[in-house]
Amino acid sequence: MTRRASSLFAAVLLATVALAGMGGCRAEDPEVTVEATPAATPTPLPPSAPIPPSPVPAPTPTVDGGPIPGQSGPAADLPTDRPLRAGILVLNGVYNTELAAPFDVLHHTQFHTQPGMQVFTVSPDGKLVTTFEGLKITPDHSFANAPQIDILVIPSTRGSMDADLQNQALLNWVRTAGAEARHVLSLCDGAFVLAKAGLLQGIPVTTFPDDYGRFSQMFPNLDLRINVSFVDAGKVITSQGGARSYEAAMHLVDRLYGRQVAEGIGKGLLVPWPPDPDTMTARIIEPAAAAPPPAATPAPQGAPGPG
Question: pTM here?
Answer without folding.
Answer: 0.75
